[in-house]
Structures are given as structure tokens and as C-alpha cells.
Amino acid sequence: MRRYVMILLSLFAPANLASAQARMPTPSHAAALPVNSVRSTCIPFRTVKAGTQPGDFRDCRISEFGEFGSVDGQVYFYALYCLIPASSPSASTCGDESFIATYHRARALAVFEREGPGVRLVFERVDEEMGVLRYEKPKILRVAGNIVMDLPIVLDGTGVGNESEYYLREKGAWARIESESWRVELLRKIPSGLQIRKGIWPDFEAMTAEIALYRDGDANCCPSGGSAVAHLSLRAKRLALTSVDIETNR
User: Fold this and answer.
1) Each residue of 34-64: pLDDT tens digit?
2) 3-17 pLDDT, tens digit each
3) Contact at 8 Å (CB) between 12 and 164?
């Protein structure tokens, strides 16, 4: 079973934490599904299944379902799923008020688009660990004259790492935006002796990202190294770093 190593680099330069299969777009020929079904019942996931073995889940329930936007007259829906691993020692079930149920309330995500009287699955995201990546409500954004779908994915921990995926609307389809290399480039521009410990979450309206800078010995709550503002642009299907403003504390 895979294990995640919480190192500094993972907070701003993703290390392929989710499996390649889980990150692949769902084929466009996926069959239409009844709306009432996907609103009330968990879909069959590709990389995890119900069962009693390690890596299985013993309970699944929809935590949230709703519409989140439209593009070219096409309406999009999302579902967030509670998944409680079979290995969990607690008797908790999805939907109760226990810590386990709350902790696992958003461990899978599905995105659907309207197709006739039903919906078609566009994206499915679930991590095999069911306790490392947390999913949030998707967004449809207007970025520099383009339409972008944002799948927010949070790496658990105090660093609030960003494992999100971004897709550009192109010729009636969703094309993955490469969003890792600019963060690697950012690292090269950070002055010696300063660190980035938190996940970096771009503001697509301003096309910037604000970053707190840490020194050795800083507590995670209290960065003392100053701050950086990364200025971004969308070039074809790639997020690019155009400049960085750094303000250090003496």
C-alpha cells in the first residue's frame, strides 16, 4: 500500500501523490446515468471498492450534491462522498457526528454534466488511502478570457497542500492544464535561508499567489521570513510564472 511522505517539496511541487489512473479524465463515452441515482447513491469507483479487505471501504454516502455551473449551455453537477475505510477500528458510519465520519466526509469526488434527462460522469477522483486527500466543491472560472474548471484537492495536514487539478475548456472538451512546473521555478527564486512550508493556492481572479516565507526554527503558525507574491499567466494549457515580488523581514 502506498504511503505519503510529508516533505517540504510536496507542499508546492506535487509528487504525483494520486495514482495516474485516478487522475485520468473519464472517457467521454461514459453512459448517461439517472439524476436521482447519482444524487442519492455512490457511484462504483475505479480504484477502490466496498469490502472488508485492506484498501476497501466499508461505508459510502453522498455528503454533498449540487449544481456548480454551466458552460456552453451545459450544466455541471458535483458529488462529494464520505468513504470510511474497512480498516477503521471505529463503528462510525457516514453521516453520524463522530470524528471518523467527519474526517472522511469528502474523500471522493465526481463531476457530472447534463445529458438529456440524465447526467454523464466527466471526472472521478478518489485516493486509495481514503485519508490523505480531501476534495472540495469544484468551480468554473473565467481566466484571461478562458474557461477553466478547478477541482480543489487538499493534501491533509497543517501545510494544507494543494493537489488541485485545472482543466481548460477547449473545442468542447476539458484539457488538463499543467500546473506544477511554475511552482518548481518559484522555488529557485526564493532567497537562501527561506522556506515555503504551506500549500500554494493561486487566486485566478488576480492571477497571483501569496506565499508566506519561513526561516529555520519558525513554528508552522508563525512565519518570520516575509512573503512572496507570484504573478501568473495562462499560456496555452500551462500555468506560467511571470514574476515574483519578494519582501523579506529583517
Assistant:
1) 999 999 999 999 999 999 999 999 999 999 9
2) 333 334 444 444 443
3) no
Residue 183 is inside which H or E element, if any? helix 181-189
What does the H/E/C string look like for 97-141?
Answer: CCHHHHHCCCCEEEEEEEECCEEEEEEEEECCCCCCEEECCCEEE
Largest CA distance in the chain: 62
CA distance 81 to 89: 20
CB 55 within 8 A of CB 128: yes
Cell output for 92: 462510525
Q: What is the Cα–Cα distance from 147 to 144, expressed in whole angstroms?
A: 8
Residues 232, 198, 204: CA angle, nearest 5 degrees: 25
Read off the pLDDT of residues 86-110 as tens digits, 9 standing for 90 and up: 999 888 999 999 999 999 999 999 9
Question: For 141-198, what is each residue's pLDDT tens digit?
Answer: 999 899 999 999 999 988 999 999 999 999 999 999 999 999 999 999 999 999 999 9
In DSSP terms, 29 is beta-bridged to: none
pTM exceeding the 0.85 threshold for the entire prediction: yes
Q: Quick one: CA dihedral 174, 126, 14, 164, positive or negative?
A: positive
